[in-house]
C-alpha cells in the first residue's frame, strides 16, 4: 500500500535531510510514525501524500508512483486518494460543520458533490456523534467535537489512505482514546490504511505497525 | 465555478461587516462619478431645452441669470419687476407677442405663476383633467403639484401668506382648482398657474369687499364727495366667487402693475433680431436670449463638475488602494487556510478562482448598489440637483 525505497529528501535552503532505505505499510494497516522533533515525521507524511517530491528514490502510495507525478497530478491524487487529519484540525469558521465535512468536494472537480456525498457526510457525522451539530459553526464546538469534524472531513471522500498529523495532541486522555477509537473504527469499516504521527507512546500498542523515524538517517547535515 | 462562488459567498457572509464596508466604498467609487456625469448631462439638457424653447425674455436690467431662473424655472430670485405696460409695448411693436409672468408668490410650497392664457399653448401644456382658466380666482395645477398635494379640479388651494406676522398684511387667497396639466417633466409640473390678475390680487394689489353703497352705518364711518370711509367691520373677501367677482377691483393704474418678466415670442427670426436691436441700448431693461444665459450656466456647472470629478477620482483611487490592501491583508491572514487547501489537493487555479470569486461578488454587489443609487438619483436626483443649482446660482 505504502512503499518507500532508497528515498532521499532535503528542503531547499535548509540543512535538514531524510534518508529512508526501505519502508512498507500494508493495505488497511494502522501505522504510527514516531520519533523526536526534527526526525522527519511530518516530512514522511508529506512525501507519502506527494506534497513533497523526493530528490531520489521511489514512493508508491495506493499503487501509484507519486514521485513521478506532475504537480497538478499530485494534487489530484491527494484529494481523491488521501484523507488528512491535521493537528489543529484547520476547520473553516465561515462554514458550518456540514460545510466543513464536505469541504474537499468544493476544491476539486474530480470530486462530485452529489446527494450520495451528502448522505455519506451525514452518515459519518452520525457515526462520529456530531449529527446534531451539522448546522453549527466550528467555533461553537469543543475541541473533541472539532476533532470529530476533522475526522469526518478526512473520511468523507472514502480515501484509500488517511494521514493524521498528531490529531490527538490537543485532547485530554479520555478524548484522546475516544478520537482514536472513532478513527480506527471508521478506517476499519472502510478498509482504509492509516498512518498517524504521534508523540504519545502510550497509544502505540493500539497500532499494527510503528515506524520509528529515529532509526532512519534523518537530521541536519 | 459554482463551488468557488459558494465558498466565496460563505466567507463574505461570515465577515459581513468588512464585506459591507468594502462593498459600500466600492459602490460609491463606481457609482458616484457615473451618476454625477449622467445627472449633470440630463440636467444640463433639461435646462437647455427649456431655455431654447423660450426665444426672448424681457426683464429689468440686472442679473440676466437671475431673470432667466425666475422666469423660466420659477425659482424666486427677487428680480425687479417691469410693468404691465411693457407687455403691451412688446405687442405694439408688431414684431412679437408678449406673455407676462408674475412670479415670487407661493402656494403650499409651490411657486404661483401669474400669466396669460397664451402661456399654455406656448409651452405646449395640455390639460390632464378639468378645464383652463376662465375667471379670476381660479388656478390650474402642474402635474407634480397635483400629484404631491393630491388635489384636482373642484378642490381649493390657499396661497402662502407673504407677510405672516403682519396683521395688516395680505391674507392668503383661496384658489379654485379648475384643471390639472399633463406632465412635461419640467418646471411647469411644479407650478400653480393663475391669471396674472389673480396673482395681483394674491399679492394685495387688488381686492374685493362688501358693497359700501349698500352698507349700513355700522360699517360706514363717513360718506364725502362720492367717497366712502369704512371701519374695520368691512368684510374683505379672501376667495373670488361668481357672487363676489364684481366686487374685486384694482386701485391705481393697471398698466403700472408689476410683471416679473415678459416672454417675447417673435413672429419670425428677423423680427426677433429687430426686437433685440430695440432693447440693446435700453438703460433700464434687458431683452435676452435665455439659451445664451443657460449656456453660460452650463459651462459653470461643467467646470464645477470637472473639479468634483477630480476629487471623486482621488477619493476613488484611495478606495481602490484600500480595497487591494484589505484583500491582500485578508489573504495573508488566511495563509493557513490557503496552505490547508493546497495540502488537501486544491489546485492553484482553484484557489485563485475562490479568491477571484470573492472579488467578483464584492464588485458585483458594488455595481448593483451603484446601479440602484443611479436609479434613485435618476428618479429624484435631477430635480434636487436642479433646485440646488438654480437656488444657489
Low-pLDDT residue spans of chain A: none
Strand line-up across the major sheet of chain A: 5-4-1-2-10
Order of helices and strands of chain B: HHEHEHEEHEEHEEEHEEEEEEHEHHH
Give the end-to-end Cα distance of chain A, rounded to a whole number of Å. Answer: 31 Å
- What global shape of chain A is seen? globular
Number of helices of chain B: 11
Q: What is the β-strand count of chain A?
A: 10
Overall pLDDT level of chain A: 87
Structure characterization notes:
The complex is a heterodimer of chains A (about 220) and B (about 400). Chain A is α/β, with parallel strands linked by helices. Chain A has one domain (about 1-220): P-loop containing nucleotide triphosphate hydrolases (Rossmann fold, 3-Layer(aba) Sandwich). Chain A has 7 helices and 10 strands. Chain A has helices spanning about 40-50, 70-80, 95-100, 105, 115-125, 145-155, 175-190; strands at about 1-10, 15-25, 30-35, 55-60, 65, 80-85, 160-165, 195, 210, 215-220. A 5-stranded antiparallel beta sheet of chain A has the order 5-4-1-2-10, covered by helices on one side. In chain A, strands 6-7-8-3-9 form a 5-stranded parallel beta sheet, with helices on both faces. In chain A, helix 7 links the parallel strand 7 (about 160-165) and strand 8 (about 195). In chain A, helix 6 (about 145-155) packs parallel to helix 7 (about 175-190). With about 400 residues, chain B is α+β, with helices and mostly antiparallel strands. Chain B has 2 domains: about 1-45 and about 295-390, no CATH class; about 55-205 and about 250-290, no CATH class. Chain B is about 50% helix and about 20% strand. Chain B is built from 11 helices and 16 strands. In chain B, the strands form 4 sheets. In chain B, strands 1, 3, 4, 5, 6, 7, 8, 9, 15 and 16 form a 10-stranded mixed beta sheet that branches. In chain B, a hairpin with a 2-residue loop joins strand 11 and strand 12 (about 225-230). The longest helix of chain B is centred in the C-terminal third of the chain and has 45 residues, at about 350-390. Chain B is elongated and about 115 Å long. The two termini of chain B are about 55 Å apart. The mean pLDDT of chain B is about 85. The chains are: A alpha/beta (about 220), B alpha+beta (about 400).
Amino acid at each position: 500500500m505504502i512503499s518507500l525505497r532508497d528515498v532521499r529528501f532535503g528542503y531547499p535552503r535548509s540543512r535538514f535531510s531524510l534518508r529512508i532505505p526501505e519502508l512498507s505499510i500494508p493495505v488497511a494497516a494502522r501505522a504510527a510514525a514516531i520519533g523526536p522533533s526534527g526526525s522527519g515525521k511530518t516530512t514522511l507524511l508529506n512525501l507519502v501524500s506527494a506534497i513533497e517530491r523526493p530528490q531520489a528514490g521511489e514512493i508508491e502510495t495506493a499503487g501509484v508512483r507519486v514521485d513521478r507525478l506532475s504537480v497538478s497530478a499530485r494534487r489530484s491524487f491527494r484529494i481523491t486518494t488521501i484523507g488528512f487529519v491535521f493537528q489543529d484540525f484547520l476547520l473553516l469558521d465561515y462554514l458550518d460543520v456540514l460545510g466543513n465535512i464536505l469541504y474537499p468536494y468544493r476544491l476539486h472537480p474530480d470530486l462530485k458533490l452529489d446527494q450520495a456525498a451528502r448522505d455519506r457526510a451525514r452518515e459519518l457525522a452520525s457515526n462520529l456523534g456530531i449529527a446534531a451539530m451539522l448546522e453549527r459553526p466550528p467555533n461553537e464546538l469543543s475541541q473533541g467535537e472539532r476533532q470529530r469534524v476533522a475526522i469526518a472531513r478526512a473520511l468523507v471522500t472514502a480515501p484509500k489512505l488517511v494521514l493524521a498529523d498528531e490529531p490527538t495532541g490537543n485532547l485530554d486522555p479520555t478524548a484522546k482514546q475516544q478520537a482514536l477509537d472513532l478513527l480506527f473504527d471508521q478506517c476499519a469499516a472502510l478498509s482504509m490504511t492509516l498512518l498517524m504521527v504521534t508523540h504519545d507512546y502510550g497509544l502505540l500498542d493500539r497500532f499494527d505497525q510503528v515506524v520509528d523515524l529515529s532509526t532512519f538517517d534523518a537530521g541536519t547535515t | 465555478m459554482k463551488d468557488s462562488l459558494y465558498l466565496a459567498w460563505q466567507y463574505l457572509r461570515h465577515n459581513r461587516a468588512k464585506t459591507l464596508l468594502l462593498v459600500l466604498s466600492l459602490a460609491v467609487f463606481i457609482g458616484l462619478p457615473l451618476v454625477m456625469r449622467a445627472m449633470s448631462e440630463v440636467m444640463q439638457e433639461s435646462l437647455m431645452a427649456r431655455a431654447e424653447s423660450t426665444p426672448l425674455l424681457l426683464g429689468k436690467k440686472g442679473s440676466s441669470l437671475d431673470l432667466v431662473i425666475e422666469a423660466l424655472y420659477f425659482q424666486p430670485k427677487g428680480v425687479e419687476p417691469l410693468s404691465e405696460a411693457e407687455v403691451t409695448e412688446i405687442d405694439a411693436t408688431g414684431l412679437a407677442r408678449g406673455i407676462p409672468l408674475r412670479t415670487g408668490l407661493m402656494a403650499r410650497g409651490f411657486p404661483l405663476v401669474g400669466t396669460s392664457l397664451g402661456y399654455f399653448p406656448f409651452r405646449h401644456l395640455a390639460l390632464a383633467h378639468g378645464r383652463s382658466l376662465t375667471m379670476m380666482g381660479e388656478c390650474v395645477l402642474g402635474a407634480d403639484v397635483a400629484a404631491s398635494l393630491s388635489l384636482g379640479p373642484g378642490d381649493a388651494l390657499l396661497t402662502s401668506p407673504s407677510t405672516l406676522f403682519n396683521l395688516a398684511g395680505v391674507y392668503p387667497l383661496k384658489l379654485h382648482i379648475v384643471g390639472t396639466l399633463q406632465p412635461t417633466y419640467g418646471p411647469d409640473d411644479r407650478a400653480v398657474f393663475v391669471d396674472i390678475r389673480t396673482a395681483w390680487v394674491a399679492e394685495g394689489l387688488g381686492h374685493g369687499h362688501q358693497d359700501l353703497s349698500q352698507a349700513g352705518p355700522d360699517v360706514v364711518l363717513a360718506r364725502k364727495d362720492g367717497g366712502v370711509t369704512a371701519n374695520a367691520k368691512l368684510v374683505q373677501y379672501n376667495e373670488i366667487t361668481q357672487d363676489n367677482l364684481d366686487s374685486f377691483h384694482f386701485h391705481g393704474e393697471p398698466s403700472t402693475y408689476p410683471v416679473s418678466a415678459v416672454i417675447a415670442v417673435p413672429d419670425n427670426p428677423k423680427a426677433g433680431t429687430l426686437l433685440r436691436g430695440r432693447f440693446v441700448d435700453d438703460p433700464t431693461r434687458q431683452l435676452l436670449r435665455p439659451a445664451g444665459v443657460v449656456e453660460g450656466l452650463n459651462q459653470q456647472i461643467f467646470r464645477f463638475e470637472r473639479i468634483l470629478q477630480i476629487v471623486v477620482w482621488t477619493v476613488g483611487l484611495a478606495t481602490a488602494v484600500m480595497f487591494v490592501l484589505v484583500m491582500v491583508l485578508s489573504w495573508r491572514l488566511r495563509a493557513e487556510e490557503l496552505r490547508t487547501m493546497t495540502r488537501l489537493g486544491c489546485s492553484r487555479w482553484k484557489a485563485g478562482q475562490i479568491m477571484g470569486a470573492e472579488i467578483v461578488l464584492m464588485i458585483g454587489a458594488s455595481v448593483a448598489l451603484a446601479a440602484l443609487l443611479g436609479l434613485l438619483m435618476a428618479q429624484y436626483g435631477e430635480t434636487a440637483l436642479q433646485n440646488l443649482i438654480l437656488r444657489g446660482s
